[in-house]
């Protein structure tokens, strides 16, 4: 209809009655009247479940040859014309109307003249209040939003995010349609690349009627990697389904910087799709007001000496000594010596967002149930929180897809526990990883044996002893003091003359594995397995980006509670938990104790529990697009 100047609308009357009933189906239409008469319909009556679809299908089929200038929808026919082939618009329009009427006459379709709107002349000018109201509404719309253009099947269409545009005869970009929606809960777990690709898929679905055509169109995006999205080196099942859907369309993807892609950005940031209170702790404060359980408790603690205990339930009265109110946040602790934790009200959205931040981001590493629970419980508390965490981890799509299933474990032979965090260190290599942009195919793993702190460095499979020593100096020596002993398995990289000379100069003593038991260094073997699972989870969709994610993986491992110590490596090393986005505002800081006393207590505790706690998990690798390991 783009460019048309004359329009006419026709309305068909009694269209159902032009369709004969199939003889075998006539008895199904029988009706009985109060007088006892039995009537049967010989033509299609109104009210049959499939009558509208049958009639619409008939009208569409009959007028299909005229669809270039006459669109139909049920009993409505819309005729549109423009000047062409040297004829005026009026002449062309009359010819179009004549062809439409010929089809109606041939098939005995009749028009309702009262509802037809044809070209008229010398009509009386009528302008009443309802017309003025309509005019004012149109004028307001013109001031507040752009006028949408009609699609032109012969012109060049572009799709930017969920915005369909077309260039008019003067070269101006005109908007045909806007579309946007809020991400579903499961879609929020997707990687950024998948979310951008999801926007493209959503746009193609919404604009399918305009885009499913032979002529090409352009998709503009401010996410540059989408330019090669249609031919990725590795495909997930979801990506394969999407590419099969994209194959139906003739389009190319072009990059447009975000500062130029403002319309699509505005749609993706619609204020009615944003949370009213983006700050997590502000949302918690507001949620207290809607929680019948915690509202009286917050009010009681706010009133101080004037508080009335009769507003509390018997259970709350018995546990009131466990609660504190600070900064509008309710805190809970079982024992006065425990760190206080923020109480999360009964709001599923809040709980889901907290678990998502504690489990899904790269800095969290998609760790297991126990480690995720320990991370969340450092800052937050709500009833049955462990069950929430267990269910969330169990239903995490990424974890279920890339992590191996559990197997029975056998105890490892552990070495004597050192007396200080940095007295002893273990090393190992992990190889067989996809080549990254720098040509690296392996990871050098350093583990402090008391605190379990991990340091990682990417290396090539041709790494020499000298290069490994340089990585040691850059990744460990630059941040910590020198260890007295280094434990490693028997590989040539640790037995070369350079390593022997280096360790002698540094005052370290290399402890080699025994010949009949090559896995003396059990803790590094275990770290390697956790490292493999974490890398798979973070890099599942882009395996070659693993080296860029190593800092995140290192942080995730060092911020996870270790089963053998009961603490995170960060806490054992610095006597404090690191700040993360989840605890950046509104969090609590535990009291700092004497460093010397704490380290002695930690060392004593670890010496007692580590031999019984060290376990080895036998891993089976399934769906290994990120393949590990060759040691």
Automatic annotation (TrEMBL):
Query: What organism does the record attribute this protein to?
Result: Phytophthora palmivora
Residues covered by the Integrase catalytic domain? 412-577
PANTHER family in the record: PROTEIN CBG26694, PROTEIN NYNRIN-LIKE
Q: What is the lineage of its organism?
A: Eukaryota, Sar, Stramenopiles, Oomycota, Peronosporomycetes
Organism's domain of life?
Eukaryota
Q: Which UniProt keywords apply?
A: Endonuclease, Hydrolase, Nuclease, Nucleotidyltransferase, RNA-directed DNA polymerase, Transferase
GO molecular function list: endonuclease activity; hydrolase activity; nucleic acid binding; RNA-directed DNA polymerase activity
Extract the Pfam families matched here. Answer: Integrase_H2C2, RT_RNaseH, RVT_1
Q: Which GO terms describe its biological process?
A: DNA integration
Record's protein name: Reverse transcriptase-rnase h-integrase
Q: Record's InterPro entries?
A: DNA/RNA_pol_sf, Integrase_cat-core, Integrase_H2C2, Retrovirus_Pol_polyprotein, Rev_trsase/Diguanyl_cyclase, RNaseH-like_sf, RNaseH_sf, RT_dom
């Amino acid at each position: 209809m783009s460019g048309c100047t004359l329009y006419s609308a026709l309305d068909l009357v009694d269209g159902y009655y032009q369709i004969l009933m199939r003889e075998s189906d006539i008895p199904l239409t029988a009706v009985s009247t109060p007088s006892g008469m039995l009537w049967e319909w010989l033509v299609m009556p109104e009210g049959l479940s499939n009558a509208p679809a049958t009639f619409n299908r008939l009208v569409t089929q009959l007028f299909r040859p005229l669809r270039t200038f006459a669109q139909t929808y049920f009993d409505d026919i819309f005729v549109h014309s423009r000047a062409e082939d040297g004829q005026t618009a009026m002449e062309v329009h009359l010819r179009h109307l004549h062809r439409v009427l010929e089809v109606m006459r041939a098939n005995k379709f009749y028009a309702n003249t009262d509802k037809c709107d044809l070209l008229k002349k010398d009509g009386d000018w009528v302008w009443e209040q309802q017309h003025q109201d309509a005019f004012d509404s149109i004028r307001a719309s013109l001031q507040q939003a752009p006028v949408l253009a009609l699609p032109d099947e012969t012109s060049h269409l572009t799709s930017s995010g969920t915005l369909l545009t077309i260039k008019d005869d003067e070269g101006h970009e005109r908007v045909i349609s806007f579309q946007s929606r809020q991400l579903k809960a499961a879609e929020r777990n997707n990687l950024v690349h998948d979310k951008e690709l999801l926007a493209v898929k959503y746009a193609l679905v919404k604009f399918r009627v305009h885009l499913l055509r032979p002529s090409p169109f352009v998709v503009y995006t401010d996410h540059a990697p989408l330019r090669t999205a249609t031919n990725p080196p590795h495909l997930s099942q979801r990506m394969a389904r999407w590419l099969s859907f994209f194959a139906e369309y003739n389009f190319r993807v072009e990059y447009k910087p975000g500062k130029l892609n403002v319309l699509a950005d505005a749609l993706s940031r619609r204020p009615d799709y944003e949370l009213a209170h983006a700050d997590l702790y502000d949302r918690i404060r507001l949620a207290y007001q809607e929680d019948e359980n915690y509202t009286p408790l917050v009010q009681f603690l706010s009133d101080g000496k004037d508080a009335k205990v009769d507003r509390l339930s018997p259970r709350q009265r018995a546990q009131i000594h466990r609660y504190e109110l600070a900064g509008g946040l309710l805190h809970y602790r079982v024992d006065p010596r425990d760190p206080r934790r923020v109480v999360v009200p009964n709001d599923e959205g809040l709980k889901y967002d907290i678990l998502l931040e504690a489990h899904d981001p790269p800095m969290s590493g998609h760790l297991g149930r126990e480690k995720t629970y320990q991370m969340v419980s450092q800052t937050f508390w709500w009833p049955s929180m462990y069950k929430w965490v267990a269910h969330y981890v169990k239903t995490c799509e990424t974890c279920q897809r890339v992590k191996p299933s559990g197997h029975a474990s056998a105890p490892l032979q552990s070495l004597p526990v050192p007396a200080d965090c940095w007295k002893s260190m273990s090393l190992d290599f992990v190889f067989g990883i996809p080549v990254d942009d720098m040509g690296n195919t392996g990871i050098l793993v350093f583990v402090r044996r008391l605190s379990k702190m991990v340091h990682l460095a990417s290396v090539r499979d041709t790494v020499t002893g000298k290069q490994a020593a340089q990585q040691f100096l850059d990744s460990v020596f630059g941040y910590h003091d020198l260890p007295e002993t280094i434990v490693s398995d028997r590989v040539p990289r640790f037995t070369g003359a350079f390593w022997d000379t280096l360790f002698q100069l540094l005052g370290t003593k290399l402890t080699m594995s025994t010949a009949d038991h090559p896995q003396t260094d059990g803790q590094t073997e275990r770290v390697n397995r956790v490292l493999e699972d974490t890398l798979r989870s973070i890099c599942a969709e882009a395996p070659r980006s693993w080296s860029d994610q190593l800092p995140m993986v290192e942080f995730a491992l060092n911020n996870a509670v270790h089963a053998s110590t009961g603490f995170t490596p960060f806490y054992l090393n610095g006597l404090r938990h690191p700040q993360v986005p989840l605890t950046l505002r509104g969090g609590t800081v535990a009291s700092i104790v004497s460093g010397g006393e704490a380290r002695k207590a930690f060392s004593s505790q670890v010496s007692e529990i580590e031999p019984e706690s060290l376990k080895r998990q036998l891993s089976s690798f399934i769906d290994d697009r990120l393949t590990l390991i060759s040691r």
